[in-house]
Design brief:
Structural class: mainly alpha
Distance between the termini: 67 Å
Shape: rod-shaped
Number of helices: 3
Order of helices and strands: HHH
Number of strands: 0
Low-confidence stretches: none
Radius of gyration: 25 Å
Length: 88
């Protein structure tokens, strides 16, 4: 799933205290016992995945805002052209 070079960027680790809802912890432990993956690695991969989703959402929001600005500019230009008296 993850390339080796992708995992290497996590060599330096920070210690984080984390409070997890009991239900999420229980479900996670069940999954970990089935996939035989260390909890720490699983959580790192989950956070990495969620970060990518959030980065994409931030980019989409930025692009939509810029697109809306461009649309407003285009509508203003169209309005200006419509007001030109071509018969003159």
């Amino acid at each position: 799933m993850y390339k080796t070079n992708h995992i290497k960027k996590y060599r330096r680790m920070k210690t984080v205290s984390l409070k997890i809802d009991d239900s999420i912890f229980g479900e996670t432990e069940k999954i970990l016992s089935k996939i035989k993956k260390p909890r720490n690695r699983y959580i790192n991969e989950a956070i990495d995945h969620y970060n990518r989703i959030q980065q994409r959402a931030i980019l989409e929001k930025k692009l939509k805002k810029e697109s809306d600005l461009g649309k407003a500019d285009s509508m203003e230009a169209l309005k200006d052209f419509e007001e030109i008296d071509y018969a003159g």
